[in-house]
């Protein structure tokens, strides 16, 4: 037992060193991408424009926290997109533009997120349904539920307070949602790096069976990861109401693909056990810059989708080749 624990500790330390190097590389890619955007579109690096990019990246970055946790355990969450949309719809209908309803709306979407997470976690850990299938199925059910709930026409709008937090700047060019993201990012990084629970997540991703034999309650840890992922997705939907002002049935559509891409580009292994949210932050910003720049140069939606896919594949290939050299 002692030897097994020592071996797991050494594995985690080794993988952390590999993770640090991949994080350096993704930030180098981010800097090069910004320089390329400035050359092709002079004025791209204006503070006000960068502030706008960070505001947009905040929503993806927050949603990617949950995705990062699930992928670190060797799983995945494909219910994030529809959880975001359902939370978005619920929040708007509860707030109806009134500040006094903001807290009630937040509590409601958190409870909805907990329900989704409980179902995902129970299906994955106790019914032994693979995460890909379970979360995809739950996401599809959620989509049907919010279509019935709204009858295809969502109503309501954000409170003035939430609009100010998510859409306006408080400190110069920094908006409230960026500050919220920064706080959540700091908590996530410390949580993964410096707590026993974070180390358990890495251990499960490295080898779930070995983690179980070493005394880790793998089912409880994995269950809680999917619970957190769903709650964070629901909170993202809540914040998005403040940014858009109202709810939309397609507001979360792209978040499954983009959060996975942000996590993988950020250096987290899709098989689990290696990675950090530090890299995912850069991954979220890179994804936002790609979408923003392609829009600026008037690439049609279909072309943007194709180019984004190709660029994501290229970035992941660059990371993979670098990883194999080490």
UniProtKB/TrEMBL annotation:
It comes from the Bacteria. It is a multi-pass membrane protein. Its main location: membrane. PANTHER family: ABC TRANSPORTER PERMEASE PROTEIN YPHD-RELATED-RELATED, AUTOINDUCER 2 IMPORT SYSTEM PERMEASE PROTEIN LSRD. The chain crosses the membrane at residues 24-44, 50-71, 78-96, 102-120, 132-150, 170-192, 221-243. It is found in: Cell membrane. Keywords: Cell inner membrane, Cell membrane, Membrane, Transmembrane, Transmembrane helix, Transport. It comes from Enterocloster hominis (ex Hitch et al. 2024). The keyword Cell inner membrane applies. This is Autoinducer 2 import system permease protein LsrD. The keyword Heme does not apply.
């Amino acid at each position: 037992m002692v030897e097994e624990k020592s071996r797991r500790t050494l594995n985690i330390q080794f993988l952390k060193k590999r993770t640090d190097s991949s994080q350096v590389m993704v930030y180098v890619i981010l800097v090069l991408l910004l320089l390329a955007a400035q050359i092709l579109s002079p004025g791209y690096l204006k503070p006000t424009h960068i502030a706008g990019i960070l505001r947009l990246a905040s929503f993806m970055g927050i949603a990617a926290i949950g995705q990062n946790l699930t992928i670190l355990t060797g799983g995945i969450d494909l219910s994030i997109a529809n959880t975001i949309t359902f939370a978005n719809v619920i929040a708007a209908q509860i707030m109806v533009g009134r500040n006094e309803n903001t807290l009630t709306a937040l509590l409601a979407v958190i409870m909805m997120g907990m329900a989704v997470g409980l179902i995902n976690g129970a299906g994955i850990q106790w019914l032994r349904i693979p995460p890909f299938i379970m979360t995809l199925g739950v996401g599809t059910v959620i989509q049907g539920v919010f279509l019935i709930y709204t009858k295809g026409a969502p109503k309501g709008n954000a409170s003035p307070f939430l609009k100010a937090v998510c859409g306006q700047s408080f400190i110069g060019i920094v908006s409230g949602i960026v500050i919220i993201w920064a706080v959540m990012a700091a908590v996530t990084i410390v949580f993964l790096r410096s707590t026993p629970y974070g180390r358990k997540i890495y251990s499960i991703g490295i080898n779930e069976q070995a983690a179980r034999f070493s005394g880790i309650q793998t089912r409880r840890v994995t269950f809680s990861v999917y619970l957190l992922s769903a709650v964070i997705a629901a909170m993202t939907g809540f914040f998005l109401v403040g940014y858009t002002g109202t709810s939309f049935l397609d507001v979360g559509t792209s978040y499954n693909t983009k959060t996975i891409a942000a996590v993988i580009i950020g250096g987290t292994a899709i098989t689990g056990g290696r990675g950090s949210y530090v890299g995912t932050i850069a991954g979220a910003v890179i994804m936002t810059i790609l979408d923003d720049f392609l829009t600026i140069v008037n690439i049609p939606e279909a072309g943007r989708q194709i180019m984004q896919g190709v660029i994501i594949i290229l970035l992941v290939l660059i990371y993979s080749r670098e990883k194999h050299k080490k």
